[in-house]
Amino acid sequence: MNFRKGKGREDPEINLIPFIDVLLVILIFLMVTTTYSKFTELQITLPTADAEKAQDRPNDIIVTVDAKGSYTVNHVPVSFRDVAGLAESLQSAAKEGNNGKAPDKTPVVIVNADQFAMHQMVINVMEAARLAGYEKLTFAAQTGAKN
After folding, report:
1. Residue 107 and residue 59 in contact, taking contact as beta carbons nearer than 8 Å
2. CB 72 within 8 A of CB 110
3. Contact of 108 with 59, CB cutoff 8 Å
4. Is 122 in a helix, a strand, or coil?
5. In the chain, what is the straight-line distance between the N-terminal and C-terminal CA atoms, in Å?
6. Can you tell me the distance from the alpha carbon of 122 to that of 64, in angstroms, rounded to the nearest whole number?
7. What is the pLDDT of residues 91-106, one digit of tens each?
8. To which H or E segment does residue 64 belong?
9. Is 47 or 28 the better-scoring residue by pLDDT?
């Protein structure tokens, strides 16, 4: 009993819309759960520079602070009474470096502090340099720690 006369049977077709939806959900799931490998180091070649040696500056004042609390200015031991006395030692060291006359340029104070020296000792050197009128101050450090 075929009630549909004249019409043939329709061919079945695949509905692509739900198929595409399922594929997009799977794609999103894979993208979220995928782990990407990270490179721990980059293989790079750094440039090299050929620079001239820094010129020796006669206006350096080297202040050394050891762990025991001793100060030396240009390798001469200084007894620390107060910051003003240390500032006077810095000024006299600058004059000795210029043969007794006032320095042409502001000297650079280089602080060599022991790693076990108290912070207050280094602050005393910084304050003495400020009182002496020396604005340029730098700290010396080792390159590459030895264990």
Report:
1. yes
2. no
3. yes
4. helix
5. 99
6. 9
7. 888 888 765 555 567 8
8. strand 60-65
9. 28
